[in-house]
Structure formats: structure tokens, C-alpha cells
Design goal:
By secondary structure, this protein is α+β, with helices and mostly antiparallel strands. Helices cover 36% and strands 25% of the residues. The strands form two sheets. It has a six-stranded antiparallel beta sheet, sandwiched between helices. Strands 2-6 form a two-stranded antiparallel ribbon. A hairpin with a 2-residue loop joins strand 3 and strand 4. The termini are far apart. The mean pLDDT is 79.
Length: 153
């Protein structure tokens, strides 16, 4: 069986706000990209990574033939243990709630940055994003991509 295709591409960076209940809106530019009702959030270093459900379905399909003792199967189980299933209700504000334990992990307070990463997006505390990541220059990113593609360090 062929894994389901990924149905979203996340690009750009957006400054958003969490409401008092820990909800954040999907940026308007991404709303048409998200055809799925469910997303998965995983804690990562300094942020949360959010993937469409089709991403996890692809992993499950690719790994369903692995033996019970295969370490990759254990990695998938570990992902399930820390993931938050997000049901995205398409209300007028296009919000979803982030569980408190994940907000604490990433240090999310009022202001957050949502950064597209192609097949997923990341949610950063605005202060952390500013300190650790900032806005890289496009020319520098393109140079790094070209160097890694050609094997130049």
C-alpha cells in the first residue's frame, strides 16, 4: 500500500499571540494548505514541531512491516508518547489549543513565532526565536544549501 501523500507545505514566518486558554490561530496563508482536521505537535529543542496527520500516517505505513524489536518501531512509540493530537476546528479564528505541558516545554507565553519548515511548522516563544534563531539572510541560506548540495564545506 502506498503511503498517503503529504498535503501541506508550510513556508514563511508569522508572529502570533496565544490567548488565555493557550490557543493560537493558524496563519491565514496556511489555512488553505491544511486540508486535514488533525495535526500532531511534538516537543523539540526550544520549540514545538507541528505536523499534519498525513505525515504520521506515512511513518506508520512505512514502518508497519518492521519487527517488534526493531529500534525504529520504538522511536515511533516514543513519538506517540510525547505527541499532542490537535483537532483543528475551523472556527472563524482558525485556532487550536496547545496543551499546557507543551507550552511549558517550549516556554510559550503570549507572543509566539510560527515558522514554516516545508512539511511541518515550528512554534517558538518570540523571545527564544529572537535570541536563538532570528531572521537568517536568504543569501546565506541559499549559499549553505548550494554548498551542502555540491559537497563543499
Amino acid at each position: 500500500m502506498t503511503p498517503p501523500p503529504l498535503v501541506a507545505t508550510y513556508t514563511d514566518t508569522f508572529c502570533m499571540s496565544l490567548d488565555e486558554k493557550g490557543r493560537v490561530a493558524i496563519p491565514a496563508e496556511w489555512r488553505s494548505e491544511i486540508f486535514e482536521t488533525y495535526l500532531y505537535a511534538f516537543p523539540a529543542e526550544g520549540c514545538l514541531r507541528v505536523y499534519p496527520a498525513s505525515w504520521l500516517s506515512r511513518l506508520q505505513e512505512e514502518w508497519r512491516f518492521l519487527g517488534e524489536d526493531d529500534p525504529r518501531r520504538e522511536h515511533l512509540r516514543a513519538l506517540y508518547a510525547v505527541a499532542q493530537l490537535i483537532q483543528w476546528d475551523r472556527d472563524k479564528q482558525s485556532r487550536f489549543m496547545i496543551k499546557e505541558r507543551l507550552r511549558k516545554h517550549a516556554g510559550l507565553r503570549k507572543h509566539v513565532v510560527m515558522c514554516g519548515r516545508g512539511d511541518h511548522f515550528e512554534i517558538w516563544a518570540a523571545e527564544t526565536w529572537k535570541e536563538q534563531r532570528g531572521m537568517p539572510l536568504v543569501e546565506e541560506l541559499l549559499k549553505q544549501l548550494h554548498q551542502s548540495k555540491s559537497g563543499v564545506s
